[in-house]
User: Fold this.
Amino acid sequence: MSSVTLQLELPEDWDQFSLPPALNDRLQSLLDQQEQGNPLTESERQEAQALCDLVDMLAILKIRAERAAGPRDQ
Assistant:
């Protein structure tokens, strides 16, 4: 396994990063469809997986940015 180190300048509101509303709505729609017993097509399943991966990546970036920034004054 290899690793890559990136140096990024984060905007002041970096802790507000989240999935854009339209993508969040789409992911929720796909998850609701599946929960209601309506199987996803292969394309929908891949789309849902990609959106979940994006959510995970954003969460990891937020955590790493918080750690890199250190304690914040409350």
Summary: Residues 42-69 form the longest helix (28 residues). The chain has two helices and no strands. The mean pLDDT is 86.
